[in-house]
Design brief:
Blueprint (H helix, E strand, L loop, with lengths): L12 E4 L6 E3 L7 E3 L2 H4 L6 H16 L3 E9 L7 E10 L19 E5 L2 E2 L2 E3 L4 E5 L9 H17 L4 E6 L1 E2 L7 E2 L9 E7 L15 H6 L3 E5 L9 H5 L3 E4 L3 E5 L5 E5 L4 E5 L2
Parallel strand pairs: 9-10, 10-13, 11-12, 13-14
Antiparallel strand pairs: 1-2, 1-3, 4-5, 6-18, 7-14, 8-17, 9-16, 15-16, 17-18
Length: 277
């Protein structure tokens, strides 16, 4: 209700009409407001679409590849201008064009370490032997801050040895709220080629699904799995805990496998699976 007095709302909201349940663009009708940016994206009240297309084309022509850009828009109707546009950064976008297909039937079986229908990325990895994971038996959400030094040491050892690894943990990687996950920065887990976020009944926050490290995930083609404890597809913790550890710390365990994992992610369907040998 307070936002009704903000003149910028008219550019970003649609209205759910109570009489028929239809969604109408703008704030002219009565009903709950939904922030979907339709007045900009569909009605072109602010010429943002054409500006972004032109800007992206200029950047791609200059860099010679697909790009991703970051920008900010300040709606400032009170000063007589609809908006001020801020161009923040641009970087080349590394896109895997490999055609990978993962069918639902591939997500289950005795060789499946973990699987998910919520995966970011695309591609196949067949050379990873190392898994670094947060120990479920010792996990306490209040102690996630203390897990970071252990992770950093293991990450440094593996990156120095040139060995990419699978990283598995609970909650959101990179969160600023320690009770919602593990508050690492990307440099502290930079050797991970596959990152997995899992929930627990007592730690059931919405997963970040890569949003905290999105630029790094896309630039370095990292595969990002989200695994929910209530989903039909789970992590095979029993098999994982049976592997002989290289490092077994208070919070973090590192195992090195005799044979590499088979990791497949279908970017079109969002399905992904990791098989152990």
């Amino acid at each position: 209700r307070d936002a009704e007095y903000d003149v910028t709302l008219k550019y970003i909201a649609s209205t759910l009409r109570s009489q028929d349940g239809r969604l109408t663009i703008g704030t002219g009708a009565k009903g709950p407001r939904i922030i979907d940016f339709a007045p900009i994206l569909k009605l072109n009240d602010i010429k943002l679409n054409s500006l972004l297309k032109e800007l992206i084309k200029m950047c791609e022509d200059k860099l010679g590849s697909m790009v991703e850009i970051e920008f900010a828009v300040t709606l400032d109707d009170k000063r007589g201008i609809p908006a001020r546009f801020g161009f923040l950064q641009v970087r080349p976008m590394v896109v895997s064009r490999e055609e990978v297909e993962v069918s639902p039937s591939e997500l289950a079986g005795e060789k499946v370490l973990l699987a998910s229908k919520n995966v970011l990325g695309n591609g196949v990895l067949e050379d990873i032997r190392d898994i670094v994971y947060v120990k479920s038996e010792d996990f306490e959400p209040s102690e996630t801050f203390y897990m970071v030094p252990e992770l950093e040491r293991i990450n440094r050892n593996l990156t120095d040895a040139g060995r990419p690894y699978v990283l598995i943990g609970y909650g959101r990687w990179g969160t600023t709220d320690p009770v919602a996950g593990i508050p690492v920065n990307f440099g502290q887990i930079s050797g991970a080629k596959v990152i997995v976020e899992a929930t627990l009944p007592e730690l059931n926050f919405g997963l970040s699904q890569g949003s905290h490290f999105f630029h790094n995930v896309t630039s370095f083609q990292i595969l990002y799995f989200s695994v929910y404890h209530w989903d039909q597809y789970q992590i095979d913790w029993q098999w994982l805990n049976e592997q002989k550890p290289v490092t077994d710390g208070k919070y973090i365990r590192h195992v090195e496998l005799d044979s590499p994992l088979m990791i497949k992610v279908d970017g079109r369907s969002g399905r992904g699976v990791i098989y152990h040998g």
